[in-house]
């Protein structure tokens, strides 16, 4: 009797429907809000990941796998199963996912691609003020170099890797100098990946509103249930939300660092009391 053969496990269902690969600070929070309004589930934005160290550990490894310019480059591309660890249950991704754009198009070939356009000068000013300056400088260096290692966080180092690798830079200043080249390369690579695949790519500006986006996705334009009027396209204040989240996250990190230091504080207190007792007895003070 022939031995029974095991049935291989079924491949996980592909949930990913939309890859929004416009770069961070290109209206990604507005797109996140718009897709959520259109009924897509588990739309992933970078703000979702703040405070989620498991996500950042995956993004850290993804950066090592993706960008040859990083000293920590692993020379081993990420597999679909590895991407699924963070985005396997998502129907759409945006924001931080954009730096892995070409890799995600390969990993999720059935997903449609939305490439949000923003004027380079406005974008570069915005990403400098809200992203780069939040990751490099005296205060960020303190959190990345001191606080995060103390509490086991990798969010700061992973964020730095992702940006430096994407920009093919060694430090923040080189990254700033490389922004235009990296910006143009990013858009060209996304277009090249989608070339010859009709209906795969939508190049979109927020000012275009609902119509082209909904036509591309095959969804109805959202309307007010009472008046029937078109709901305004969302223009969310991402910079304000990001600043609030970063402050909240830094406060939480400091709290965790305080808890981590408590045993050391107790040990220092005992040592100090012992030294005082010895000194008092030795010198009769």
From TrEMBL:
Pfam short name (any one): Sulfotransfer_4
Superkingdom classification of source: Eukaryota
Chain segments annotated as transmembrane: 259-279
UniProt keywords, alphabetically: Membrane, Transmembrane, Transmembrane helix
Coiled coil: none
PANTHER family, A to Z: P-LOOP CONTAINING NUCLEOSIDE TRIPHOSPHATE HYDROLASE PROTEIN (PTHR36978:SF4), P-LOOP CONTAINING NUCLEOTIDE TRIPHOSPHATE HYDROLASE (PTHR36978)
Protein name: Uncharacterized protein
UniProt organism field: Apodospora peruviana
């Amino acid at each position: 009797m022939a031995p029974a053969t095991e049935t291989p496990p079924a491949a996980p269902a592909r949930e990913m429907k939309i890859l929004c690969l416009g770069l961070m600070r290109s209206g990604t929070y507005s797109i996140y809000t718009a897709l959520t309004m259109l009924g897509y589930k588990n739309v992933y934005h970078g703000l979702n990941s703040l405070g989620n160290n498991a996500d950042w550990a995956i993004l850290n490894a993804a950066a090592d796998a993706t960008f040859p310019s990083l000293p920590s480059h692993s020379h081993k591309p990420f597999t679909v199963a590895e991407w699924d660890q963070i985005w396997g249950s998502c129907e759409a991704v945006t924001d931080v996912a954009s730096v892995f754009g070409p890799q995600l198009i390969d990993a999720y070939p059935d997903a449609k691609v939305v490439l949000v356009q923003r004027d380079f000068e406005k974008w570069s000013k915005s990403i400098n003020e809200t992203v780069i300056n939040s990751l490099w400088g005296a205060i960020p260096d303190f959190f990345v170099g001191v606080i995060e290692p103390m509490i086991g966080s990798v969010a700061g180092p992973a964020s730095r890797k992702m940006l430096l690798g994407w920009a093919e830079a060694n430090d923040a200043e080189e990254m700033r100098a490389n922004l235009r080249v990296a910006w143009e390369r990013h858009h060209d690579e996304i277009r090249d990946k989608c070339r010859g695949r009709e209906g795969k790519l939508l190049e979109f500006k927020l000012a275009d509103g609902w119509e082209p986006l909904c036509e591309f996705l095959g969804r109805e334009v959202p309307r007010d249930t009472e008046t029937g009027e078109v709901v305004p396209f969302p223009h969310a204040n991402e910079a304000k939300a990001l600043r609030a989240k970063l402050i909240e996250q830094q406060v939480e990190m400091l709290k965790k660092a305080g808890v981590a230091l408590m045993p050391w504080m107790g040990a220092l207190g005992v040592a100090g009391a012992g030294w005082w007792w010895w000194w008092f007895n030795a010198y009769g003070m």
